[in-house]
Amino acid sequence: MKKLILFIFLGCLVIFYACSTETEPDNESSEIYSEDKGSSDSQRTESDRSQEKNIEKKTVYLTFDDGPTSATTDILDTLHQFNAKATFFMLEPSMRESPEVVNKIIEQGHAVGLHGVTHDINNFYKSEQSALKEITTAQETLQQITGVRSNLIRTPYGSVPYLTKSYREVLDSNGFKLWDWNVDSRDWSLSSEQYLDTVIEQIEEQVNAGVTPIILMHDKQNTADHLSSLLAYLSEHGFQTEKIKENTKPYNFNCYQRCHQISTQE
Ligand SMILES: [Zn+2]
Asked: Which residues are the signal sequence here (predicted)?
């Protein structure tokens, strides 16, 4: 009997030992695995870092209104230095004045859009037909100069408050794509440093809200002189400039009951 108990006891010991040795390699292998995983993680991080960077590249749209002007060439040179792309919303008389600059904008791969003729609130927004006429005149001139037919438009001073529903419908039914902005550089009123600061601050706000920044700037010398600082910031912070395409979904201000006819102001 004692022998039997001893035998069972020894048997248990053998089984226990076998079990414990079975689990040990598992632990070891999981450790090895986790080490492997660790090293492959670090390898993956290394190899994928550049790819992730590409995926994470944030888009930004640079837009320049009121050109072409004597500053356009400087703007184009700076954009070229940074391999950046932009969209120019141009005035019809200025296009007629400097057709070679309009062609240069297109040759350098930027987008072109229409900003009307008079840039005068009382003329442009007088009626649906006056707004449409200014835009189509600008469209025809652009096409005559460059052969490019653009449907991208930005109305003077933006679409709010004077572009009421009926104006929007007329422009829309004629195939025009209305573009406002969500970053106002205020480069027409601020000094160079102030305009850069205000743009960067608003870009960060838009990005934090998950919105693609669309920056309103003007085709003017002060803006041109400090554009490289803005482009350096964008490049350092992982932004990629893109031009607006005909099929890009347009961004418009919302009226929120703020839109009204120009005549009600008078
Ligand atoms: Zn303008």
From this structure: 1-20
pTM here is 0.79
> What is the C-alpha to C-alpha distance for residues 242 and 77, in angstroms, rounded to an integer?
17
DSSP secondary structure string for all residues of 39-56:
HHHHHHHHHHHHHHHHHH
| Domain ranges, ordered by start, for the chain | 25-56, 59-265
Q: How far is CA 244 from CA 97, 163, 229, in A?
A: 24, 21, 22
Whether 76 contacts 227, CB under 8 Å: no
| Distance of CA 184 from the midpoint of ligand 1 (Å) | 12
Residue type, 153: I
Taking only the tens place, the pLDDT of each residue in 79-108 is 999 999 999 999 999 999 999 999 999 999
Stronger pLDDT, 106 or 33, i.e. the higher one: 106
- What residue type is 44 in one-letter code? R
For ion ligand 1, residues whose CB falls within 5 Å = 65-66
Cα–ligand 1 centroid distance for 209 (angstroms)? 27
Instruction: Give me the helices (H) in 152-262, please.
Output: 165-173, 192-208, 221-236
Burial class (CB in 10 A: 0-12, 13-18, 19+), 83: exposed
**Structure confidence by residue, pLDDT tens digits, 227-262:** 999 999 999 999 999 999 999 999 999 999 999 998
Higher pLDDT, 176 or 38: 176
Span from the CA of 60 to the centroid of ligand 1 (angstroms)? 20
CATH topology of domain 59-265: TIM Barrel (3.20.20)
Catalytic positions: 65, 218
Helix (H, G, I), strand (E, B) or coil at 134: helix
